[in-house]
Amino acid sequence: MKIYIDGKFYDRENAKISVFDHGLLYGDGVFEGIRAYNGKVFKLTEHLNRLYHSARAITLQIPLKKEELEKAVLQTLRENELKDAYIRLVVTRGEGDLGLDPRKCPTPCLFIIAGKITLYPEELYSKGLDLVTVATKRNISEAVNPCIKSLNYLNNIMAKIEANRAHAPEAIMLNKDGYVAECTGDNIFIVLNQKLITPPCWAGALDGITRGTVMDLAKNKLKIEVREELFTPYNIYTADEVFLTGTAAEVIPVTKVDDRIIGNGKPGPITQQLIQEFRALTQKDGTPIY
Ligand code: PXG
Fold first, then answer.
1. Phi and psi dihedrals of 241, rounded to 5?
2. Does residue 248 line the site of ligand 1, with CB under 6 A?
């Protein structure tokens, strides 16, 4: 495995960054999780745009221009001879001293790991997930805005620990007002009377790339109405269909939440259509690697 760090490639054993890096000491940095399918990087521009927005929000200067970073991502995939891959792109504040002041970190650190991804078992796409709502609330927008894909994932990790304790594959997180926000690494949608509803980003959801793709497919391909609206766990329990979206999970059905069966307990027709459309799109679209 060849890992890109600040313009050079290193073997896995030698791919190291400093213990004084503020990404490690303070979670001071931003990241992206991107996928390549069939020799093409899916929604690369959208992921890079989100990375630059996250960086801007924390006043972190990414050391490369967007076009250069795009080239670095493609080069990393070629270096590893990958056609289907998971790409982790990380920019940290860089090395500093033992104080949190970012002014002591003159040079950001940028690294790219490209490897295989562990997926949910295929069986869960036909059976659906059994989820729990957890007590840990999504970060408030007035603190670190959840739209920033920062290296500070402790909040979501706390929620994930709660899901683990309940033997659930994901956790539904509410915002501080009790409205549904998202899961620890996925966005959430409900289907009600043939309409798709997902929480607005300002309510505590990441502006997910898969979320955006699914909203577009629903509106323009399936001709289904899509709304960004607040809803509560009650609306999940009484929805016709529920599903999650994310780079890792793609589109995955949810058939049980907090011991309530969703709909008839099987993945619904709209979810199934969106899974098919999404899979077709990932095979077809994207930035060519070779
Ligand atoms: N919400 C959160 C909090 C996320 O971290 C999503 C939603 C889905 O967004 P995308 O853009 O992927 O549709 C994410 C994405 C991982 C991993 O390693 C996490 C994500 C993506 C890929 C891998 O756990 N999070």
1. -145, 155
2. yes
User: Which DSSP string do the residues of 47-72 spell out, in sequence order?
Assistant: HHHHHHHHHHHTT---SS-HHHHHHH
Q: Report if pTM > 0.90.
A: yes
Specify whether the CB–CB gap between 134 and 173 falls below 8 A.
yes
Question: Catalytic residue numbers?
Answer: 149
Report which DSSP code applies to 221: T
Q: How far is residue 91's CA from residue 222's CA, in Å, rounded to a whole number?
A: 37
Q: Is 209 in the pocket of ligand 1 (CB under 6 A)?
A: yes
| 206 Cα–ligand 1 center, Å | 8
Judged by DSSP in three states, 87 sits in: strand
pLDDT (tens digit, 9 = 90+) per residue, 199-229? 999 999 999 999 999 999 999 999 999 999 9
pLDDT in tens, 109-125: 999 999 988 888 999 99
Q: Strands 8-11 and 171-174, how do they pair? A: unpaired
Domains of the chain plus CATH, in order, are: 2-115 (3.30.470.10), 123-284 (3.20.10.10)
Q: Provide DSSP, 117-139.
A: -----HHHHHH-EEEEE-SSPPP
End-to-end CA distance of the chain: 18
